[in-house]
Amino acid sequence: MIVDYHMHLRNERGEIAHAVAAVEPFVATARAAGVDEIGFTEHVYYFRQTRSLWTVPYHVERCVYDIETYVDAVAAAKGRGLPVKLGLEVDYVPGREDETRALLEPYPWDYLLGSIHWLDGFGIDDRPRLLDELGVEGGWRTYFDALAGAARSGLFDSLSHPDVIKIFGVRPDRPTVEALHDEFADAIAGLPVAIEVSTAGLYKEVRELYPDPHLLAACRRRGVPATLASDAHFPELVGRDFDRARDLLRSAGYETITVFDQRAAMQVPLG
To answer: Residue 16 contacts by C-beta under 8 Å, 6 or more apart in sequence?
Structure first.
């Protein structure tokens, strides 16, 4: 089976469109690309219901949409028999776990992605950068410590673009990088959370898949499951470069992929 479990519901111009009609082009592209099932994961900070979580202007100024409209659109498409799942990409805010859980609890999610884009007002993939505030090694360590905290929180079913801290191509020396990978893999071993293999990094400054082969192999050795993602913001990007993602998974020793339904995870053979 092939799934694409990270995308944002947009129309063909890339504009936010939380409507059933916007789902259909994503499904059509998925079918053409040999993707069996897709999952929509809008950014949590687009919804006014979550405004109380945010302090960073980037988040606050985007809280203008209604989460019910998004949920209803994907649920309606799912109810029509389309091969879609209802998800959300949730920015993890250390110390706000209970509030995050309470805000999300009322909705029928199939899965929740945990992401970290900002920490203490500094951007992981935006400016002002955490890397500049804490230095390269300090920024990397702080990021992976927080991502392990996201896994331990129990809020999330999968961790998206798990080494996005490398997005600018700036990293510590290789022994330090690999030590941080191993420490992170140790921290999440045995937790009910998957790690995402994403092709989105191929089109960022780093020009690499997420995660690094060493990090993925470290997770595999510790029994951490995996899933697949394109992070598509346009329908035509669904399943993009999945041949490379599957090669990476197999090289790390993965033979199955994770699928979700109503927050329950299941392993199926990797197509």
So the answer is: 8, 9, 10, 46, 65
Structure tokens at 105: 């609890």
- Report yes or no: 119 and 142 within 8 Å, Cβ to Cβ: yes
Quote the distance between the C-alpha of residue 228 and its chain's center.
9
- H helix or E strand, kind and range, residue 112: strand 111-115
| Tens digits of residue pLDDT in 164-221 | 999 999 999 999 999 999 999 999 999 999 999 999 999 999 999 999 999 999 999 9
Tell me what percent of the residues of the chain surpass a pLDDT of 70: 100
> Distance (Å, rounded) from C-alpha 64 to C-alpha 160?
24
Cis peptide before 213 (omega within 30 of 0): no
H/E segment holding residue 33: helix 20-33
Q: Where are the alpha helices (DSSP H) in 80-221?
A: 97-104, 130-134, 136-152, 174-188, 213-221
Q: Which pLDDT does position 130 carry in this prediction?
A: 98
Q: Are 27 and 84 in contact (CB under 8 A)?
A: yes
pTM strictly above 0.90:
yes
Place of tokens 């993965």: 254
